[in-house]
């Protein structure tokens, strides 16, 4: 859909233009907001994407969560599917699909259906519609595991007036940015 491509292009261009200092400051604020939430504090298991290309820094979030004694799983793309695998440390990650760091398939697969899942956003709107990179990995995964509590994280400038949604698109339950909870 052309509108999705236009929104994606505009937001990614803005995100890529962040200075290193601005990115760090905004990333730290997103993560501070997230770890202060009761849903995070009460969750024993966290499924989190591994950030790349100026997404909010989940590397620090993953390290923090592991040190806090939480079980942490991160995604790996296998064909057109995405699966989550537990990690004990970020040193287990290696560059994989499209340059994104992933866990090895030899790690234990994470199969809970009620974890706290942190999902990336390219753009979002006030209706909780989420625009990703266009691969549909999270939508397909969440069709199989619908009971995760899903939090989308991004920067406040990633909010669009309206994000077109298809019937198969899975929306986050909540969206957090450097300005706090949006929805």
The largest sheet is: 7 strands, mixed
Regarding quaternary structure, how should these chains be classified?
Answer: single chain
Rg over CA atoms? 15 Å
Proportion of beta-strand residues = 15-25%
* Spatial arrangement of strands, main beta sheet: 3-2-1-6-9-10-11
Number of helices: 5
Q: Globular, elongated, flat, extended or rod-shaped: what is the shape?
A: globular
The proportion of residues forming helix, as a percent range, comes to 25-40%
Low-confidence stretches: none
Determine the structural class based on helices, strands and strand pairing: alpha/beta
Write down how many β-strands occur, each being a DSSP E stretch of 2 or more residues.
11
Strand and helix order = HHHEHEEEEEEEHEEE
Mean pLDDT: 94
Give the end-to-end Cα distance, rounded to a whole number of Å.
25 Å
Question: What is this entry, summarized?
Answer:
The protein has helices at residues 2-16, 20-35, 38-42, 58-67, 137-144; strands at 45-48, 71-78, 81-87, 94-95, 101-102, 116-120, 123-124, 130-131, 149-153, 174-177, 180-181. The chain is of the alpha/beta class.
General description of the model:
The protein is an alpha/beta fold and 183 residues long. It has helices spanning 2-16, 20-35, 38-42, 58-67, 137-144; strands spanning 45-48, 71-78, 81-87, 94-95, 101-102, 116-120, 123-124, 130-131, 149-153, 174-177, 180-181. It has five helices and eleven strands, in the order H-H-H-E-H-E-E-E-E-E-E-E-H-E-E-E.
């Amino acid at each position: 859909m052309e509108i999705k491509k236009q929104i994606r292009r505009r937001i990614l261009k803005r995100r890529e233009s962040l200075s290193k200092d601005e990115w760090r400051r905004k990333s730290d604020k997103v993560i501070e907001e997230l770890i202060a939430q009761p849903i995070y504090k009460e969750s024993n298991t966290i499924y989190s994407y591994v950030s790349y290309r100026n997404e909010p820094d989940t590397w620090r979030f993953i390290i923090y969560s592991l040190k806090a004694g939480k079980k942490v799983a991160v995604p790996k793309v296998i064909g057109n599917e995405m699966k989550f695998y537990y990690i004990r440390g970020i040193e287990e990650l290696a560059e994989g699909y499209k340059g994104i760091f992933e866990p090895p398939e030899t790690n234990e697969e994470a199969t809970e259906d009620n974890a706290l899942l942190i999902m990336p956003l390219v753009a979002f709107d006030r209706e909780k519609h989420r625009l990703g990179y266009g691969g549909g990995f999270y939508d397909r995964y969440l069709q199989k595991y619908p009971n995760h509590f899903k939090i989308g994280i991004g920067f406040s400038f990633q909010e669009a007036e309206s994000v077109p949604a298809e019937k198969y698109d899975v929306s986050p339950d909540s969206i957090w940015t450097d300005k706090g909870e949006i929805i």
